[in-house]
Amino acid sequence: MSNPAEILIIDDEVQMRKLLEITLQTNDYSVSKAATAKEGIIMAANHPPDMIILDLGLPDEDGHSVLQKLREWYTNPVIILSVLNNEEDIVNALDAGANDYLTKPFRTGELLARMRTALRGAFTEENNPVLSYNDLQIDLSARTVKRNNELIKLTATEYALLATFAKNEGRVLTHQYLLREVWGPGFINQTQYLRVFIAQLRKKLENDPNRPEYFVTESGIGYRFVFKE
Is the pTM of this model over 0.85? Predict the structure, then answer.
């Protein structure tokens, strides 16, 4: 890569920092490292990286708190890499603005794939109004959706849900996030709404709704809109 992305690793474990550094440098990323929350926040502020890989179990401050502080000003992707694998920690981190969450031990291939997806960045109507995913085409300006060049009729709510997914391609979106974005803050506990509308989108847009390729369930957490390259 002629213009490698800069990655900041915030992790207190020496071996983990070294493993990540070797893995990322081998794949042409530029790497900087911090062993504490304080050091990481200062480094991110002085020279904002293209992405931060953040451990939740830091010695001087809880990683959830670090994420909240970063999200007050840092807009680039943050991937959580943690031994904590309970549903509450994952949901809290994603709701606080993490782009993705991997538990240790992890497969390096999966980490690199998640990084590539996150670095592609969220689509916006301004910079890429037409999104193409294999046989699926979403025009955010015209608010139209085509599958195999055939216009698909979506309700206003179905379209709003699809557009939210498309703008966050590859990112795990929690149930609460989707309900808040599409239906409003008063609906964050109405998960049955989400199940119904996800089923409708799968029926209209998936080749096999029972084996979805685009709308992938993250059990107990939410959904991920996946575009396979």
Answer: no
